[in-house]
Model the fold of this input.
Amino acid sequence: MKSWLSALSAYKIPRIVAMLFLGFSAGLPILLIFSTLSLWLREAGVERSAVTYFSWAALGYSFKFVWAPLVDKLPLPFLHSLLGKRRSWLLIAQFMVIAAMVAMAMNDPAASDGLTFMALAAVLLGFSSATQDIVIDAWRIEAVESDLQSLMSANYVAGYRIGMIVAGAGALYLAEWLGSTREVYVYGAWQLTYMAMAATMFIGVVTTLLIPEPERTQESSYLHTARDYARFLMLFMALVFTMIISYLMLSDMSAAIKLWITETSANGKLAAFTAEMFRLLMALSAAIAVGWLLVKTQVADRRMLQDTYIEPVMDFFHRYGKVAFLILLLIGFYRVSDIVLGVISNVFYQDMGFSKDQIATVTKVFGIWMTILGGFLGGFLTVRFGMIRILMLGAIMTVITNLLFIPVANNPGDLALLYVVIGADNITAGLASAAFIAYLSSLTSLSFTAVQYAVFSSLMTLFPKLLGGYSGSIVDAIGYQNFFFTASMIGVPVFLLVWLAGRYTRTASS
Done:
């Protein structure tokens, strides 16, 4: 167990300092798809249910494992020799993020076709931001030894939340100062706001140019010639193309399943969720089948498919055995309560009568500084007491603090109460996130850094984001009080998963 002094001295390490700025670069785009965008859309007159559907634009975060192997294996021409594998991909991803933000700024959701183009730009932002996350996660794990991962996680959470302050409070303050309010919508104000957010991304660009390339990256055993790279790229494109086309072609079948479940169970929300899950799983299965067919016909190299998608998964199951399924359940459900509640949070604050300035001050400035405090606290406690104990503490605190939103719903406009609840909720979120990121990093093998962590982080957000997309419809059906209670109770089974994972992981490792 390390002392507080030795933990503090580690923050002087340049790579740990750099993690603060990379965290900022990762945290900036997320609210521009979620809560900040939701307020823009609401001011533009978009319906609440349609606003929460926009959270699906960030599903790129949940499916980034599909293109993580491309980022992990494929060197970028010219940039690879100049910057190295991780930094070259990071630089490209950051410029893609900037381009997506500019594209969103150039489309007015109140215009006839504006909402459609806004949705496409939001999807591009989700994809490019998720790509940036793939590289940052790989760099973080490879840049320092495992005993410093909790401090890297704490700095990542701190930087991430500062980025959220800028994209949350900063964007809301700027849009209001430029003249757009709930009563008077001004597209130009939001346009300039999103352009300003694009400019702040250059903090990440500068950091990428200054940081060193990690020395512990694993090079591919089968990519040597231009022909090898071309075959690998073709395999990847075939898998992605198949998944997209299959998903689109299954639209009618998904609608039929939704109608059948609705008629037999009279539960439209369950029907929509089940139909979409079926559609996604079938599209993924089709991509796997195409990959197998390409290997059988020798169009693709068996080693490519094996090393790219199969070996990272098999390595994880080989190391953890049957306990791997338990760990995957924990990863998939640990943050479900928080994410589902967070999708509709800004709409909730607005419905409770709080102004945009109040929302920005309490939830984005005060709240996110509390998250940063919680992140540092989580990093220190993880170093001293271990990940499992702090994961359990975070899970329990998450359920309790989410229940505190019920009094806020019962007392609309009570600013003092909002401060108390936001403070408790965000300290909890920071603590739990720091411990959870360190836990995911500890599960990752250096041989498959980018792919395994992408799978873990994708699984972490997939179910919560799918469910969160229906949060607006659920609130319309059952009200805010019942919604917060239900969202909190979803987190209770996590207690058992954390306890079992801690118990059996130690047994499996011993």
Summary: Residues 4-222+301-509 form a domain with the Growth Hormone; Chain: A; fold (CATH 1.20.1250.20).
